[in-house]
């Protein structure tokens, strides 16, 4: 199922009716900066979500996204890349699970995929370690959520990382995740998000989950 809000204001209003990819990490306690209780308070209207749109890192990421998407197209001419800024893909069985995507992919075999673009400034070795063989936990929860929402076959995370602690080196990192390899994790995430959303609907605050990071 796809919702097609016509503008940013309509998209923001539609987001109130469910959980997006950026909510997934917080919902299961995998976000270092936003707890499941913080998210519950936002979704129940007992707290207001902090507006971070004016922060330099957020502004950089927003402006860089279109350029990184074009670079991805150059790197992967074998894939069709589409982009719809406000489309919301809803899980057919659990429509409160939705995803708005940075890119919609079709590979040479007709398989559907998700492009997730990230920008980050890595300040220390611990931050870099999260990217060496994988992606940070909160981003992993996000892409699992996107697979759950769309039902598609794979995700490619395409990240532009700046590492000033290593001498202002900029790196492009690409990670591909096939749905067949993470079906168990997707099922677990859906189960946890169902419990979280029930807590939102009931108005009963869930127990705080401390991130294991």
Describe what you observe in this structure.
This protein is an alpha+beta fold and 213 residues long. The chain has a single domain, classed as Lambda Exonuclease, Chain A. The protein has 7 helices and 8 strands, in the order βααααβββββααββα. It is globular, with a radius of gyration of 17 Å. The mean pLDDT is 91.
Write the layout of secondary structure elements.
Layout: E1 2-3, H1 8-15, H2 21-27, H3 36-44, H4 56-75, E2 80-82, E3 88-90, E4 98-99, E5 103-106, E6 112-121, H5 125-132, H6 137-150, E7 154-163, E8 169-178, H7 183-202
Parallel strand pairs: 6-7
Antiparallel strand pairs: 1-3, 2-5, 3-4, 5-6, 7-8
Helix pairs in contact: 2-3, 2-6, 3-7, 6-7
The shape is globular
Domain tally: 1
- The CATH level-2 architecture is identified as Alpha-Beta Complex
CATH topology: Lambda Exonuclease, Chain A
Distance between the termini: 34 Å
Q: Which structural category fits the helices and strands? A: alpha+beta
Helix content: 40-55%
Largest sheet: 5 strands, mixed
- Tally of helical segments: 7
Report the strand count.
Answer: 8
Strand content: 15-25%
Mean pLDDT value: 91
Query: How do the helices and strands follow one another from N- to C-terminus?
Result: EHHHHEEEEEHHEEH
The largest sheet has its strands arranged as: 2-5-6-7-8
- What Rg is obtained from the alpha carbons, in whole angstroms? 17 Å
Would you identify the regions where 5 or more consecutive residues have pLDDT less than 50? none
What is the C-level CATH assignment?
A: Alpha Beta
Question: What's the short version?
Answer:
The chain has helices at residues 8-15, 21-27, 36-44, 56-75, 125-132, 137-150, 183-202; strands at 2-3, 80-82, 88-90, 98-99, 103-106, 112-121, 154-163, 169-178.
